[in-house]
Design brief:
Length: 323
Amino acid sequence: MTIKGQATVVKHTGSHYLLSRLPEWKLFPAVLRGKIRLKGSSATNPVAVGDIVSYEAEVPEAGVAPEMQITMENPAVITSVSPRKNYIIRKSTNLSRQSHIIAANLDRAFIIATIDFPEIKLPFLDRLLVTCEVYNVPVTIVLNKVDLYRESHAEMLEAFHDIYEGAGYPVMEVSALTGEGIEELREACKGHVSLFSGVSGVGKSSLIKAMDPSLEPRVGEISDVHLQGKHTTTFYEMYALDSGGFIVDTPGLRGFGLVDLKKEEIALYFPEMLKASENCRFAPCTHTHEPGCAVKEAVENGEISYQRYSSYLGMLDEEGKYR
């Protein structure tokens, strides 16, 4: 007997997938039928975690729950991918023209960062934020490990809040170790599909476990050599929180190249620059050399942070690669 249905991709490892009909959490395996290609997409993965897919499966017995009869030896077959409401995408390697979809159909992205341990890289964070803006994914920045640096890096912490809250992004302070801010983060994720992303070592998996101790995401350590995180999450996976909601955990990222974004469009995805640009003398304005540029004036006056403006200039200058 052939059954058909729709479900959400909750895990992707190589050519194998796990599906569940959210908000129900009953997992069953699936594989792709042939090569699914999405119109206009150059992504290396045509099916991503968070995608809603159509599937069919052969089950031998009527009257028995279909999921019980879909096994690794008898997986469902993914036949098509539904249109996405949004997604997060990046260049798959520094020198590649191809791209990789991190996750799809997200209610919010939580970008996990640390002021130190490992040291924050603002240009990397800004690239993630621009990508979320381009693909319509609401963002919250989560500063983890605040117990380690709140006193020793108080000025940096205050400056970070000024920069990013000034740009319009909510910033939360949490600690997976002490539990500070965990309940607030848990509440923010309730009833939603959320992405946790950031560089290696910022504690994404530790935060997930702090939010729900029954989960077992892989937790890594900081490398002593470069004070960078060791990769522990090697595939994309969604977790169901016992308090409600779903989290997509991602491998720690070390580079993030922008995709499908023309240079003249980049400033549109810096909210504070977009607002200031309404008063530029010339349109379009690159905000680099033009007279009467309201964005440059706002930077000089401290209304737009120099760090964000510097990130913008770096994106203008990149030539197809980024580390």
